[in-house]
Amino acid sequence: MPRWLAEKVNLRKISYQSGIHKEPKRILISGGGYADLPLIRSAKKLGYRVITTGNRQEELGHKESDEYHAADFSDPEAILELAKHLDIDAICPCSNDSSATSSAYATECLGLPGHDPYETSKLLHHKDRYREFSATRDIPTPKARAFTDVDSAFSEIGNFRFPVMVKPVDLTGGKGIAKIDNLSEARSGLKQAFAVSKSDHILIEEFIPGSRHGLSAFICGGKVVFYFPDNEYCYLNSYLVSAASTPTTVPRGAIAELILQSDRIASLLSLKTGLFTRAIHKIKAYELDDHLKDFRKFLMKIGLNGNNYEISDPPENGHIESNIDWNGMRLRIMAND
Predict the structure, then answer these.
(1) Which of 95, 94, 91 is nearest to 104 (CA)?
(2) Contact, 298 vs 309, CB < 8 A?
(3) Topology (CATH) of 143-206
(4) What CATH architecture is 209-322?
(5) Residue closest to 312 by CA, chosen among 34, 65, 100
(6) Would you identify the CATH topology of the domain 3-122?
(7) What are the pLDDT digits (tens) for 87-144?
(8) Rounded mean pLDDT of the chain?
């Protein structure tokens, strides 16, 4: 491990020292799905008392945590009340954007460490806010516009070139997303998105064909100091990533540009040092001749949660590829250790 990283993130396991009993910190992982198993296992390995939450008691992660308490991790007030009730020392989001915003809210209210402000989390995890933020700062992002009712959205959808994407601004995992190929499909697609949006906000966005990739990164001093690129795949749900692989097929020049844009975002928002962040990007390739391609890079999203796929999630892959314990670093920073 690089010396600067070891200095920034002390990964010594919590233990009994000098014969003095030290009560383990209580860490709430606001989730507990199968994709969170590496995070749960890492927290237990570090000696924390691990508490998981969520609406589904049967989730695999709850079977390996020390405690499970039912609560909706997408509800900021529910996570706040649970953290108060259990006297939590630290909160770590699961692999869900809603968990990240709820965790940021609760930690801000309680004065717990390791998270960016709640408003920053909402900006990054709500599609309409992030698109507006990027567009006004010349960060490559698809053309998009937010709407609060079906009729106004339908009246404006013709200003986009079909096909277009329709998305709830506040949901994850491909929920409510539809690709609209023509005007005759528009109203039903819009109604579907509004029906599931918690805030009654949807986004109409230009469709970007191309390959999808992830860039997991560690931020220090407002810059990306370590990164891990991958290729991403969708199977059962066209809009939900179900697997990732490495090494990536993304050209080095494209990765360098994406890191520069991630640096800009980290600097503009004063993102906390050490937070594990994730940039989701699409790359559209244009054939110029038989030997050369021009790549357009679209930074679709950047998040403050450690998005995971299957059991072999990016933090796990990153550990195997780089010999750096991504989950351990995340946890120790959020626990202020």
Answers:
(1) 91
(2) no
(3) Dna Ligase; domain 1 (3.30.1490)
(4) 2-Layer Sandwich (3.30)
(5) 34
(6) Rossmann fold (3.40.50)
(7) 999 999 988 889 999 999 999 999 999 888 999 999 988 999 999 999 999 888 889 9
(8) 82
pTM of the model: 0.83
Q: Do 155 and 221 touch, CB atoms closer than 8 A?
A: no
- Which tokens sit at 169? 């601004």
Query: Where along the chain do its domains lie?
Result: 3-122, 143-206, 209-322
Judging by DSSP bridges, how do beta strands 164-168 and 241-245 pair with one another?
unpaired
Per-residue tokens: 215? 């860039």
The span from the CA of 279 to the CA of 79, in Å, is 25
Q: How far is CA 224 from the centre of its chain?
A: 16
Q: Tokens in use for 84?
A: 């108060």
Of how many residues is the chain composed?
A: 337
DSSP string, 309-331: -SSS-HHHHHHHHHS--HHHHHH
| CA 106 – CA 79 distance, rounded (Å) | 6
Number of Cβ within 10 Å of residue 188's Cβ equals 12
Tell me what pLDDT residue 281 has.
59
Comparing CA positions, the residue from 156, 109, 104, 149 lying closest to residue 126 is 104
CB-count burial class (<10 Å; 0-12, 13-18, 19+) for 236:
exposed
Element (H, E) at 135: helix 127-135
Q: Which of 99-126 are b and which e, b meaning 16 or more Cβ less than 10 Å from the residue's Cβ? A: bbbbbbbbbbeeebebbbebebbbbbbb
Q: Could you read off the pLDDT of 215-224 as tens digits, one per residue?
A: 878 888 888 8
